[in-house]
Amino acid sequence: MPPVAKYRSEPWLQSPLRTPVGEIELAGLLRNVPGIDPTGMRILRRFTLVLMVEGKGYYRDARGTRLEIGPGDVVLVFPEIAHAYGPLPGSEWTQIYFVFDGPQFQLWRAQGLLAPEHPVLRLGAMDYWRRRLLEVVKSEPLHTAGAPLRALGRLLHVLTDMVAADAESTRQAGRDAWLENSLRLLGDRGAAGWLTPQEVAPMVGLNYENFRKRFVQLTHESPGRYQKRRRLEWACAAIYHGETSLKQIADTLGFCDVFHFSKAFKQEIGFTPSDYRRRVRGH
Known about the structure:
Elements: E1 8-11, E2 17-19, E3 22-31, E4 47-54, E5 57-61, E6 66-69, E7 73-77, E8 83-87, E9 94-101, H1 103-110, E10 120-122, H2 126-138, H3 147-174, H4 177-187, H5 197-203, H6 208-219, H7 223-241, H8 246-253, H9 258-269, H10 273-281
Antiparallel strand pairs: 1-3, 2-3, 3-9, 4-7, 4-9, 5-6, 5-8, 7-10
Helix pairs in contact: 2-3, 8-9
């Protein structure tokens, strides 16, 4: 029987990095982690991010989540939520960890970007994420006045990319290619203008009625409603840049005149185009 590998800790921080918007309390690498017994879950007072580096393991929490995890998976531990994780029998476990908290992370939680109901991010590319996390605290000396704020910014950047990568992989896994193509065709203004939903349907291999029904089932809005929202988002950008008149924008979007464009814009955005321009450009 081979000897049991010894637990090892390699801390990356000598002391916490504190800023007015958040702090990084601990960071480092743990080898041969023994794990937490699911029958005796623990509760932490701060957020913890765990990147699985080696091994196969499990994650459990008091919300009923039961998942197996492997290299490239990220576990997000939330304050006040009982949880357990560790290696599966016969597997060793190596992890990178960050312990953090503060107003910025609480805001992300309140807005659903960090969600207790989604505690494991399936990222893959373990070496890439390992390097990104190492750069958070190892890319510059941390004793200068501005270093903690820059380190926190780097952690937020990595978290943003992790959440986005997980969302994209989850969306791709849960949607057919026809829907991804439909969203692109409806939402982007091509050289010849905007394609109508009726034009998009045969381009993705569906008749219009079937296309509309399946689109609503998966996105909870009609193709026309989705495209209207995307067109008016395009109008917001055009107004902000200020290079196009309201009449030109109305014409580009296919409205018969500025009045109807303004009415639709206010219904969607909450302001008239003129009010929106004053808010974002100051005139």
